[in-house]
Amino acid sequence: MNPWFAHRRRRNLAESSENRMRVGVPVHSLFKQFVNIEYDPEKNQTVFSGFVIAVFDEMMRQLKQPFEYIPFNGSYDELMIQIPLKKFDAVAGDVAIRSSRLDYLDFTQPYTESGLEMVVPVKSKLSNQPWLFMKPFTAKMWWLIATITVYTGFIIWLIERAHCEYLRGSIVNQVGIIIWLAFTTLFTLRGDKLHSNLSRMVVVVWLFVALIITQSYTASFTSMLTAQRLEPTITRVEVLRNMNATVGYCNGSLVHHYLKDVLGFNSFKVKSYNSTHRYAEALNSGEIAAIFLEVPAAKVFLAQYCKSFIRTGETFKVGGYGFAFPRKYTLLSEVNKALTNVSESGKLKELEDAYLTSEKCVDEKSSPNEDESLSPRGFSILFELTGGTSTVALAIYIITSIREFKKSNPEPKNFFKLMSSFIKNEMRRSSRVVNAEST
């Protein structure tokens, strides 16, 4: 059963009396979630339901005022006129508060959010980006990965070059080997080709970190490809006017005048529609570039078409929905107090959730999924682990190498001369070129 049929209240028109308030209800409400009228032939009753009816019922229950609903088969403006004509005492419907109506009516305070919203089709933000493969990580993350990778390759080269002649040679050759070692360690342990326990320790820790990084990248990139990121096709009214685009609005509402007089659209570029299905068809076919709906109606429409359309973020201030009463109605303050009690008690939010936001989405398109790019913050411990391990291995290697060099050069030297001789010896070792024919 649809949510707007919950909390039904039945009114038998044959039970009306002089003390019973006559409340007009529009028959042709665009959104059945707001007002829905059905006839029950078995019980000979007219059933009134919907969000507006539920709110009005709750308000009148607090006032302890007897009333009856009377369906009206006409336009909204014609319905409003029935109050000064003394045919109705009030009107309960998805009726917007407008300045022109305040000349002959009084309204309660709005019981919905006030405003006019622009709804447009969505488009993917990622599908045409050539650098999409870089999106899973932030720029800082990429720089940190590159730095740690090259640093790890340098440590392995420095430690292993004493054991592997192919790691020596010209400067260009050694730079190429460092880069090659750096990136091959991302995908293989290479334990059988490593001679030092220090380099094995560095590679094991780095491979563990690299495995987590590559798996995180794969998961994030897959998510971006399978769950498209969406954004509005048009974001501002000025763009619509410059395009000379056609826009739509809800049939029977006063939005038409607002679009012409305030937002500056030409009359022949404004079309009215009488169903949510027609809204969706017109937007998808390109018949209109955008549709303007009051906030409550936009909520219902976007609940039904949650994956195809989106709000642009702009809200234009207009009056919300209110209940209409005769001009200078003496009990209006009591009515507003009752309506405030409905809101403050949480009942209004409960009814809104039940009738307006629980609508089932009928779209088949992919839903938006705005996952942020991964930053170094989530991997800081891992980077500290691999960087620290490499640094410790480097320190151990340097200390051990200096001791061995000192043993082979027993002449007493001060610290600076010792270090200078050690560095020169290391550079000579790195610059030896192996004769390929002799191997």
UniProtKB/TrEMBL annotation:
InterPro entries in the cross-refs: Ionotropic_Glu_rcpt, Iontro_rcpt_C
Claim: Mitochondrion is one of the keywords in the record: no
Major localisation: membrane
Subcellular location per the Swiss-Prot or TrEMBL entry: Membrane
GO molecular function, one term: ligand-gated monoatomic ion channel activity
Membrane topology, from the record: Multi-pass membrane protein
GO CC, alphabetical: plasma membrane
TM stretches of this protein: 141-159, 171-189, 201-219
Span of domain Ionotropic glutamate receptor C-terminal: 22-358
Keyword terms: Glycoprotein, Ion channel, Ion transport, Ligand-gated ion channel, Membrane, Receptor, Transmembrane, Transmembrane helix, Transport
PANTHER family: IONOTROPIC GLUTAMATE RECEPTOR (PTHR18966)
Entry protein name: Ionotropic glutamate receptor, metazoa
Species this chain originates from: Helianthus annuus
Phylogenetic placement of the source organism: Eukaryota, Viridiplantae, Streptophyta, Embryophyta, Tracheophyta
